[in-house]
Amino acid sequence: DVQLQASGGGFVQPGGSLRLSCAASGFTFDGSAIGWFRKAPGKELEGVSCFGGDGNTYYADSVKGRFTISGDNERNTVYLQMDSLKPEDTAAYYCSPFCAITTISEEVADFGSWGPGTQVTVSS
User: Fold this and answer.
1) What's phi and psi for 88, nearest 5 deg?
2) Which of 19, 29, 52, 94 is exposed most, by the fewest CB atoms within 10 A?
3) CA 84, CA 97: separation in Å to the nearest integer?
């Protein structure tokens, strides 16, 4: 049973930073595809950044140059370093074992089965 738990969200002012963590159980992160996603009220589910499982990392245009995805095989954990945060980054952030950097249908993503996200709020 795959479980991915996102944590590390919080409240931060514009320009600030946060680091999110995604701890995996029942799933071995070892170069496998895994991604960070976000969902803001009234907006579609959006892929933010991911490991493609092909040795490459991918970023949505909206976060390129500001966010960095990394992984720790020993801890079986994936991180998302978020710098230069903007109010439009406000959302609940989730991790899931696939890669996408576009908007994605919640039905296609089986969003209802995902673990709880972590809320990021960027505001002055």
Assistant:
1) -70, -5
2) 19
3) 26
**Number of CB atoms found within 10 A of residue 46's CB:** 19
Residue type, 74: E
Residue 85 CB partners (closer than 8 Å, separation 6+):
12, 14, 15, 16, 17, 18, 66, 120, 122
What are the respective helix, strand and coil percentages of the chain, to the nearest 5?
Answer: 5, 45, 50
- Three-class SS of residue 113? helix
pLDDT in tens, 93-121: 999 999 999 999 999 888 988 888 999 99
38-84: pLDDT as tens digits: 999 999 999 999 999 898 999 999 999 999 999 998 899 999 999 99
Tokens read off for 108: 């296609």
For the record, the structure tokens of 21 come out as: 């963590």
Q: Which two tokens stand for residue 100?
A: 């996408």
